[in-house]
Write a structure and sequence with these properties.
Layout: H1 7-24, H2 28-34, H3 39-47, H4 66-79, H5 81-101, H6 104-116, E1 118-119, E2 122-123, E3 126-129, E4 145-148, E5 152-163, E6 170-176, E7 186-192, E8 198-203, E9 214-225, H7 236-272, E10 274-275, E11 278-279, H8 284-312, H9 318-343, H10 354-363, H11 371-383
Parallel strand pairs: 3-6
Antiparallel strand pairs: 1-2, 4-5, 5-9, 6-7, 8-9, 10-11
The protein binds acetoacetyl-coenzyme A (CAA).
Acetoacetyl-coenzyme A binds next to helix 5, strand 5, helix 7 and helix 11.
């Protein structure tokens, strides 16, 4: 067992860190405030190969491993969690799902542009449509239906809180095809946003990750070709669960980045700010906060890397990804609150970035499975 990163991993980490500093930091406060999607930044992430990191070059990807993905996600998320959630959803929920379970035709037609993140010079990304108004944590209660019409399916329903909802060109949509079969009657379909009957509805005005593009999506008698169903009939819920297990590594890494970004800012500030005649880093009250932040962040990082390692080795990573997500997201929430505290009144204003990171941290405890859902996954495995 060794804990050192390879030369290649260190290069990827540095490339992501430089990118975040040079491309994401400028304008990040304004994009957050005005809810402006970081289109330019995401285009450049695509050019770097960061939108299809784990897909082979044969299908437009960068052919990197999951460890590289964790490292890049951490660095981008330190600065811009709105850009990084777009990257995470495209990489692990859309590209990975298509790569692992898609047919050859689906890979040629959809995976290749999604993994590149660009088609015909325009942004081309995906979204993952599982959540509904009445099916969040209880994901098997799908109300969206896809009726088998012989040569196509007819899709009807409403999906909520869809990351990349307005920007994505392609949606992976979970829908009930046979209610009597419960979770075995769910299928996943590849749906193009431009098809008749697809409506991008309300954009959410959110607490955090405000520059990310979150919408309700409506389907009204959308004709979906048979060949756009992913996998065997009834595979849709398992597809969602398998894909989300990898997605949770991405969100855990995002949470890790939010936490470490806040920690780096708190550390820097504690060396500059003076109180009671000395820099505040010389006060034990601050030292203990920094020590606890560093310790929790290191633990979160190790959990993320372990889950990524297991995925790269072909092992079962369902539980380790849930452990990484629940721990990293709680670390992000705790660390960002403490980072605001270290900054005092300055922490409460926008220019110092930590209040944004605190708002951004909260979503990591909610999406891709709440902390409670992660604990269900972990405890079921322990008790099995
Ligand atoms: N891999 C493969 N199969 C799995 C699985 C996994 N990880 N987890 C469950 N399954 C299978 C089960 O084995 C079962 O199949 P069988 O009947 O053949 O045994 C079937 O799926 C149903 O599973 P459960 O009985 O465990 O289902 P449940 O109703 O108890 O729910 C749950 C389990 C873990 C709570 C699940 O519903 C869940 O993960 N909920 C959260 C959903 C979620 O994460 N939503 C996030 C939305 S996406 C998002 O946020 C993206 C974004 O835009 C950022």
């Amino acid at each position: 067992m060794h804990f050192e990163l390879s030369e290649e991993h260190l290069m990827i980490k540095k490339a992501a860190r430089d990118f975040a500093q040079n491309e994401c930091l400028p304008g990040v406060i304004e994009r957050d405030e005005k809810m402006i999607f970081p289109r330019e930044q995401v285009m450049k992430l695509a050019e770097l190969g960061f939108m299809g990191m784990m897909v082979s070059p044969e299908y437009g990807g960068a052919g990197m491993d999951t460890i590289s993905y964790v490292l890049a996600m951490e660095e981008i998320s330190k600065i811009d969690a709105s850009a990084s959630v777009c990257m995470s959803v495209n990489n692990s929920l859309v590209a990975w799902g298509l790569d692992k379970f898609g047919s050859e035709e689906q890979k040629q037609k959809y995976l290749t542009p999604v993994a590149r993140g660009i088609k015909d010079g325009e942004l081309y990304i995906g979204a993952f449509l599982l959540s509904e108004p009445e099916a969040g944590s209880d994901a098997t209660s799908q109300r969206t239906t896809a009726e088998d019409m012989g040569d196509h399916y007819l899709l009807n329903g409403t999906k909520n809180w869809i990351t990349n909802g307005g920007t994505a060109s392609v949606y992976l949509v979970m829908a009930q095809t046979d209610a009597a079969k419960g979770s075995h009657g769910i299928n996943t379909f590849i749906v193009e946003k431009k098809w008749p009957g697809v409506t991008v509805a309300a954009k959410e005005n959110k607490l955090g990750i405000r520059a990310s593009d979150t919408h309700t999506i409506l389907f009204n008698d959308v004709k979906v070709p048979k060949e756009n169903r992913i996998g065997e009939d009834g595979f849709g819920f398992k597809f969602a669960m398998r894909t989300l297990a990898g997605g949770r590594i991405g969100i855990a890494s995002q949470a890790l980045g939010i936490a470490s970004g806040a920690y780096e800012l708190a550390l820097k500030y504690s060396k500059q700010r003076k109180a009671f005649g000395k820099e505040i880093m010389h006060h034990q009250a601050i030292q203990f906060k920094l020590a606890d932040m560093a310790t929790r962040i290191e633990a979160a990082r190790l959990l993320c890397l372990k889950a990524a390692y297991e995925k790269d080795q072909g092992l079962d990573y369902t539980v380790s990804s849930s452990m990484a997500k629940v721990f990293a997201s709680e670390t992000a929430m705790w660390t960002t609150v403490e980072a605001v505290q270290v900054h005092g009144g300055y922490g409460y204003v926008k220019e110092y970035h930590v209040e944004r990171l605190m708002r951004d941290a909260k979503i990591t405890q909610l999406y891709e499975g709440t902390s409670e859902v992660q604990r269900i996954v972990i405890s079921r495995s322990i008790l099995k």
